[in-house]
């Protein structure tokens, strides 16, 4: 029975790093397989090139004639690189990416065939998409969904397929994917931020949101990972006793990268280069066999696509190296889980990062405007921001004594805290010339210096300002970044829109100068946003108490957290900013609740199976050995045998106790699951799974893990933590 474990271990012991061939100059490879600006210049007519560039920069429509030219050029380029198929590549609400390949090949009669790819195939497709989650937007009998080309994210060659990034919408126009609402949110923040920028610089025509994600993951030997049914089916271990050594020595973090992992990374990075994913940083993370990868930041839509593509690519490259990538937020109990920090900022078409102070007092006032408006947006929408990162798997990290808590707060560092408190003292209404000069010289004017020596870092904060960007750290490692980016850009857009209205009103009604009005509004925002600012230890229990006093939400589980998505306030927000209709918002809520139920349901089944069919029979086998031993001792020693068999008898009893506990708990878990399955209302059902079914996981695990420590190692069927985490 324990064969698989030992076979896997034997295979692992013989592994060697897989050789990789790497170009010395990565810049030579960069974007080689992307139909990017430079490829387009080469392959497109001037008209077609300008048509696409206008669509990218100004959102203008691409007409059919140009689409035909583009598709034909794409085909020529792709064929020259050995490509045979094309696909519309999209991100449905399953959490994975989707693709359906069609060959360029077409028959033309007379026994002949050609390679064809027309404009209409580039622009729009109608995949048979009835099985994607839609939250009730489509009935299956009316299952039509369309994919439509997103020219702002360039087509790329993946394997031998030309992949065209697309949005995915229902026949009736509702979004069925992550990209569509993200694009709308990016438009909203562009509109609102550009309008605010005009206070400072009339030349600003466009504001772009940037994202730099940092992806954490585990790398486990493939044979070992495959030997565990829980990893195979749920992406995490549902049981397993902690090894004697975990991460307590901090010897993995930033340590020398193990050879097999390093070769995987080099191979992966080469693939990333070809696909135009600008990966830059790699290192060991805190937990054993945990690593991180980060790119240079990009425009948010592109960065989101690149992260989705990367997650897929990682799995493929890993299998070449006989490794398995675990993206799950908490694959192993007792050691750190994985997140995906989302570094976010806004910048103008004139090249200014709006979250970075400039050289003049006026540009610093612009920085403060965007900085404070972001804080206010988070303050007013903290619960929604928590909701957007909620998932069954991320619940294991947030609020579970590990970075970061389920409470959203903003960290800005001591220096900027001081700046805000000084601004809070700005006079109401008109400012005296003296006050203005003072503000310019001593507060606003000093900001760049302040930031230079602002080395504050607070790793426990879920939303931290880090010099020229905000870093949203609570995002889960499996998440599609479109979700947090959609919400963040929408709430900031809404906030900036309000800011503009308030500033204009003060200029109009109170006859204030522009900068006076801005100072006045910012002062009120600082006062109104105090509850969200927190500089202390986010992991501490004192913060939970303090946060409660401040009225901050602390939704520890997904069913509780998700509710904020469909509050009247959230629905109105998404509608007002043209990001999602009420139908779209509620559909997503239903999909996520359902997904939560299914994930817990799968885990419950797998746990029941492993505990009942692997652990218990193994324990019985071992117990039988002990019984045999005891009877043997009795044969030899007669009535005196208990003197020699005391320990064994104790073990036999303890094993029986654990077996009994496992069986009763599995039965009870199955019963509550059956009851939960009968519930129609998805919200009530999710709560039943969360509060009635899930609590059995830890209880069952406890007894299994105890048995792992008792049973003869050579009989134990499940690959152990020390083997999974320390095989390199
Ligand atoms: P950390 O100290 O958190 O690791 P880094 O400076 O290494 O921070 O950056 C992490 C990520 O943030 C990278 O992807 C980087 O490109 C990105 N980043 C840097 N500046 C910005 C910015 N202005 N806007 C968005 N992302 C940024
Ligand atoms: Mg970071």
Automatic annotation (TrEMBL):
GO molecular function: glutamine synthetase activity
GO BP annotations, alphabetical order: glutamine biosynthetic process
Signal peptide limits: none
GS beta-grasp domain segment(s): 84-173
SMART domains (UniProt xref): Gln-synt_C
Domain GS catalytic: 178-615
InterPro entries found in the cross-reference section: Gln-synt_C (IPR040577), Gln_synt_N (IPR008147), Gln_synth/guanido_kin_cat_dom (IPR014746), Gln_synth_cat_dom (IPR008146), Gln_synth_gly_rich_site (IPR027303), GS_Type-3 (IPR052725), GSIII_N (IPR022147)
Gene3D superfamilies to which the protein is assigned, alphabetical: 1.20.120.1560, Glutamine synthetase/guanido kinase, catalytic domain
Superkingdom to which the source organism belongs: Bacteria
Recorded family membership: Belongs to the glutamine synthetase family.
Official protein name in the record: Glutamine synthetase
Source species: Lutibacter profundi
């Amino acid at each position: 029975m324990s064969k698989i474990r030992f076979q896997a271990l034997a295979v692992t012991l013989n592994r060697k790093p897989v050789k990789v061939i790497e170009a010395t100059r990565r810049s030579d490879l960069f974007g080689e397989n992307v139909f990017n600006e430079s490829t387009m210049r080469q392959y497109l007519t001037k008209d077609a090139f300008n048509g696409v560039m206008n669509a990218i920069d100004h959102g203008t429509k691409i007409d059919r004639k140009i689409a035909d030219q583009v598709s034909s050029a794409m085909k020529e380029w792709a064929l020259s690189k050995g490509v045979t198929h094309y696909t519309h590549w999209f991100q449905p609400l399953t959490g994975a990416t989707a693709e359906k390949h069609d060959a360029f090949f077409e028959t033309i009669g007379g026994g002949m065939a050609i390679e064809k790819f027309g404009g209409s195939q580039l622009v729009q497709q109608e995949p048979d998409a009835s099985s994607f989650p839609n939250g009730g937007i489509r009935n299956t009998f009316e299952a039509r969904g369309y994919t439509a080309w997103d020219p702002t994210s360039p087509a790329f060659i993946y394997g031998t397929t030309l992949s065209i990034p697309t949005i995915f919408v229902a026949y009736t126009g509702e979004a069925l994917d992550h990209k569509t609402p993200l694009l709308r949110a990016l438009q909203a923040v562009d509109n609102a931020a550009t309008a605010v920028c005009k206070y400072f610089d009339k030349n600003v025509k466009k504001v772009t949101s940037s994202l730099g994600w940092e992806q954490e993951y585990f790398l486990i030997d493939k044979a070992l990972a495959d030997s565990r049914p829980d990893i195979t089916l749920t992406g995490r271990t549902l049981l397993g006793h902690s090894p004697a050594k975990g991460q307590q020595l901090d010897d993995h973090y930033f340590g020398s990268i193990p050879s097999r992992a390093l070769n995987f990374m080099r191979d992966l990075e080469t693939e990333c280069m070809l696909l135009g994913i600008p990966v830059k940083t790699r290192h060991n993370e805190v937990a054993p066999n945990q690593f991180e990868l980060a790119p240079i930041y990009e425009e948010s839509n592109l960065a989101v696509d690149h992260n989705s593509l990367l997650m897929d690519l990682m799995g493929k490259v890993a299998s070449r190296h006989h490794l398995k990538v675990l993206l799950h937020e908490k694959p192993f109990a007792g050691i750190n889980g994985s997140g995906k920090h989302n570094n976010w900022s806004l910048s103008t078409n004139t090249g200014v990062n709006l979250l970075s102070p400039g050289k003049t007092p006026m540009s610093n006032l612009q920085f403060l405007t965007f900085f404070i408006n972001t804080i206010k947006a988070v303050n007013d929408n903290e619960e929604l921001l928590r909701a957007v990162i909620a998932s069954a798997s991320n619940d294991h990290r947030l609020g579970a004594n590990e970075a970061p808590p389920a409470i959203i707060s903003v960290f800005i560092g001591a220096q900027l805290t001081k700046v805000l408190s000084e601004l809070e003292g700005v006079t109401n209404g008109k400012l005296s010339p003296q006050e203005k000069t003072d503000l310019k010289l001593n507060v606003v004017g000093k900001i760049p210096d302040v930031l230079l020596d602002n080395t504050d870092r607070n790793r426990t904060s879920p939303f931290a300002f880090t010099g020229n960007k905000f870093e949203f750290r609570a995002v889960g490692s499996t998440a599609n970044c479109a979700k947090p980016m959609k919400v963040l850009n929408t709430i900031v857009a809404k906030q900036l829109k309000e800011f503009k209205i308030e500033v204009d009103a003060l200029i109009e009604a109170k006859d204030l100068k522009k900068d006076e009005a801005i100072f006045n509004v910012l002062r009120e925002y600082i006062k109104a946003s105090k509850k969200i600012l927190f500089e202390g230890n986010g992991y501490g229990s004192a913060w939970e108490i303090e946060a409660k006093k401040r009225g901050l939400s602390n939704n520890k589980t997904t069913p509780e957290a998700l509710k904020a998505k469909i509050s009247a306030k959230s629905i109105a927000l998404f509608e007002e900013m043209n990001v999602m209709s009420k139908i779209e918002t509620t559909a997503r809520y239903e999909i996520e609740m359902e997904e939560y139920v299914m994930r817990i349901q799968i885990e419950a089944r797998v746990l029941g199976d492993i505990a009942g069919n692997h652990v218990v029979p193994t324990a019985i086998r071992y117990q039988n050995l002990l019984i045999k031993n005891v009877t043997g001792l009795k044969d030899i020693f007669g009535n005196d045998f208990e003197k020699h068999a005391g320990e064994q008898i104790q073990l036999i009893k303890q094993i029986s106790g654990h077996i009994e506990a496992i069986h009763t708990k599995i039965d009870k878990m199955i019963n509550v699951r059956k009851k939960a399955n009968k519930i129609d209302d998805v919200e009530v059902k999710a709560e039943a799974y969360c509060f009635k079914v899930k609590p059995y996981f830890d209880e069952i695990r406890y007894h299994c893990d105890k048995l792992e420590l008792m049973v003869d190692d050579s009989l134990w069927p499940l690959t152990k933590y020390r083997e999974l985490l320390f095989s390199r």
